Amino acid sequence: xxxxxxxxxxxxxxxxxxxxxxxxxxxxxxxxxxxxxxxxxxxxxxxxxxxxxxxxxxxxxxxxxxxxxxxxxxxxxxxxxxxxxxxxxxxxxxxxxxxxxxxxxxxxxxxxxxxxxxxxxxxxxxxxxxxxxxxxxxxxxxxxxxxxxxxxxxxxxxxxxxxxxxxxxxxxxxxxxxxxxxxxx
Length: 185
Hints:
Radius of gyration: 18 Å
Strand order of the largest sheet: 3-2-1-6-5-4
CATH class of the largest domain: Mainly Beta
Helix content: 10-25%
Strand content: 35-45%
Mean pLDDT: 89
Low-confidence stretches: none
Order of helices and strands: HEEEHEEEEEEEEEHEEE
Number of helices: 3
Largest sheet: 6 strands, mixed
Structural class: alpha+beta
Distance between the termini: 54 Å
């Protein structure tokens, strides 16, 4: 199957899934691996195809709905095909955050809305190269979003000190952001 036919098949499945409520059940599909496709999700969240940015936000959104993380990496998956792609950091960016009652709602760069809680935790690691906080939020089925710097600053601003760490609450769970005075506040 040619690359053009493969892309057409992925788009068709994603569009059909979009017409139906919710996301396609990619976790239930087990097609044969068809190879790699030259799609890269850059660390800044830009989706690239053959070295050029994918300019249509709708197409990026459609591809994001058939994205799956398997033990051997990230793939675009349909009932009939599985194509490996490359992701430089995390596949999504959490670009906005707002309070909804006691919960935190994050919106990703592809339009997913995520309520932080036990099933979608917020975690903060330290970037090994920069030494800076590297926050993330779970989006769905092992896929995560990097929390952008401005949103992280908003989290730090609303944080409370608990057990010697700055933390925020959502979904009945406290999520530690880091120690006070460690460049967070």
